[in-house]
Design goal:
Elements: E1 10-12, E2 23-30, H1 31-35, H2 45-49, E3 56-62, E4 68-70, E5 72-74, H3 76-86, H4 89-96, H5 99-114, E6 122-126, H6 132-139, E7 143-147, H7 151-159, E8 164-165, H8 168-172, E9 177-183, H9 192-202, E10 203-212, H10 218-229, E11 245-246, H11 249-258, E12 261-264, H12 280-300, E13 310-314
Parallel strand pairs: 6-7, 6-9, 7-8, 9-10
Antiparallel strand pairs: 1-5, 2-3, 3-4, 4-11, 10-13, 12-13
Helix pairs in contact: 5-6
Length: about 325
Amino acid sequence: MNESHVDNRFSSRRCPFCGSNKSSCFMDLETDMFCLGNWTYNKNYKELLNLSHKATFPIHRCAACGFRFAKYLPNTDFLDLVYDKIINMQNCNDGSENLQSYSRRMMYLGELLSCLGNHDLKILDYGCGVGVDLKILKSVNIKCIGYEPSRERLKKMIQSDLNVYSDEESLFSECPYDAIICDNVLEHVPCPNEIVGIFSKLSKKDTVLFVSVPDSNIKFFKNQKSRILKKLPLDMSLNPWEHLNYFEIKYIDRLFDNAGFSPINPNINVNIGLRQEGGGLNRLRNILASMVRLIDYAVTGRTNRNPNWLFYKYE
């Protein structure tokens, strides 16, 4: 597999999970593969970013621990272009300010609040985006503090009178927090270990954390490789400019265990993955798979956990 042709706005990375410098190219992505299907991107991204037609962006697999990650880290100037010029902020806002987004957030906020007491709460939303969680929690008089480095998003949230910071130092002046929200953040950061370490410093005993990242298991990557062969757009979660890290659940658990967090299940119902399916064959497959998960739960106590929806408690 050919290695990438990137310019000096990118630097090579070690494995962000274990620090090993030994890795191999797992898949090599041309720009159009992950940009054409991204509905938040402006169409003239190539011209705005001044990219070589030879440029490709590889996903590597660590030889030591197996973690998959974007091999090249874009510098601040490149990312500023992506977030300020390439991403259409109106499209991005529309993707957050809608019924589906609010419904999802209210579900995990409900589970999060069920883990906390009735005292005055203080919650941190780390990487709060356009501030949807801040608005929801403010509407029920819960103090929620946001952290968001994006200048455009920060300006709009301050105009909406939301409590938000752009520097991590200010977060420590408000800690400890009763709960921390980390919704689709860890895939973006160069060093996820450092961010989770910050969470432990901002926490107290029994602080509850909600984390969500895209589920980047081997089945996901097989599906994306199939889409490349069929010349179909890739899933938006496969983007080596914005998504630097590709997590399976075992890596998330180890990441938080190392920082003093233990997994919890706030939902009294056990999820075995039973869901609605359109066709009879698909329903049968799902029923059989769910039966296997139910037997596994009966024997081991393990539940059907997914990186999209995880809760931890600081010990």
